[in-house]
Specification:
By secondary structure, the protein is an alpha+beta fold. The chain contains five helices and five strands, in the order αββαβαββαα. It has a five-stranded mixed beta sheet, sandwiched between helices.
Length: about 130
């Protein structure tokens, strides 16, 4: 099974805005709400690499900045350059597991489209550990 073409196209389109001067690895992300609206983000790098922002976190930031409740997110799609394999990094997995744990995420792995539940990518997210301290 593959994601809908419109979600792929939205991620590819925003990927063109990537600021990936240092890695040369442009990433685009498209997030679909249950109602069908799509929000996008691309990676933005800094020479101080730790200050860079991944496409997934930019897209979720755009969505939240627009006043959208993250619980309305149904699916997320991530693309790398030329549709090479590209999965969310650990930081993105953590943020997505906190904000949109119920969502389906699409990415390329082994040259194929793969879909997973966000929590499957981060089964022992930090939030779960913090609950023991409440």
């Amino acid at each position: 099974m593959n994601p809908n073409e419109d979600l792929i196209e939205a991620a590819l389109q925003v990927q063109l805005n990537s600021r990936s001067k240092y890695s040369g690895f442009s990433v685009g992300c498209a997030i679909r709400l249950a109602a069908g609206d799509v929000y996008t983000g691309c990676n933005i790098e800094s020479v101080s690499f730790g200050l860079s922002n991944c496409a997934e976190r930019v897209a979720i930031g755009v969505l939240i900045s627009a006043g959208v409740d993250p619980s309305l997110v149904s699916e997320i799609l991530v693309v790398g350059p030329d549709l090479v394999d590209c999965t969310p990094c650990g930081a993105c997995r953590q943020v997505l597991s906190e904000l949109v744990p119920h969502a389906t995420i699409w990415f390329r792995h082994g040259g194929q489209w793969v879909s997973r539940n966000v929590l499957d990518l981060m089964p022992d997210a930090l939030e779960a550990s913090l609950k023991t301290f409440e």
